[in-house]
Design goal:
Layout lengths: L2 H11 L6 H7 L3 H4 L9 H22 L5 H11 L2 H10 L10 H5 L6 H18 L2 H11 L1 H8 L7 H13 L4 E8 L6 E8 L2 E8 L2 H17 L1
Antiparallel strand pairs: 1-2, 2-3
Helix pairs in contact: 2-8, 4-5, 4-8, 6-8, 8-9, 11-12
Amino acid sequence: MNQTNLDTLQKIINYKFKDILLLTESLTHKSYLNENNTKKSYERLEFLGDSILEFWISDFLFRTFPDFPEGKLTNLRALSVCTQNLSIIAKKINLGQYLFLSLGEDRGGGRLNDSILEDVFEALVGAIYLDSDLATTFEFLNLHLLPEVKKLSQKKVYKDPKSIFQEIAQAKFNITPHYQVISESGPDHQKTFKVAVFVDKKQIAIGVGKSKQKAEEMASIEALKIINT
């Protein structure tokens, strides 16, 4: 990745970094570390960005929908910052094009991987916050994420991918899908879960995530793609 590419990305996101190393770190996948003389991946920034996102969306929904009960606010918040929605935003700003990936991860489709794109978007949020302040970070989110949140808020029912797949499975097969953890890897503070979703005894799809919930969500997204085709 050269400086020209990073300049292009900064124009797309409408934010100019004072510390360009923060932007580089936010784009670096852990697979890249093994093949290059680099020590930091985006994971710490992702941790920070995830918390900022939760605060931003909670604040926005609380102020915008004073009549919504807690349950409805919770569902809309979950839908707004889920893997599927954040990966859509990441794709709109072509974030995958600028990632630092290992050759294997790149060839395996890492630049279009929804889970990676979600993580990198969160890392970018964390990087902007460290490079500026909370107000500037909120401006970035208002520009790039708020339009999608407003679209979601106009729906009468807020359903996550797991709920949608469950409804389809029950309608087609009269069976409620179930999820099973296939494997866990990594240290306790940084585990990766692989989860399979089954309809009866048939495995439909597999999802990977940094929590069981995220892995189940990814499995349901993949299952929906399979069912729809």
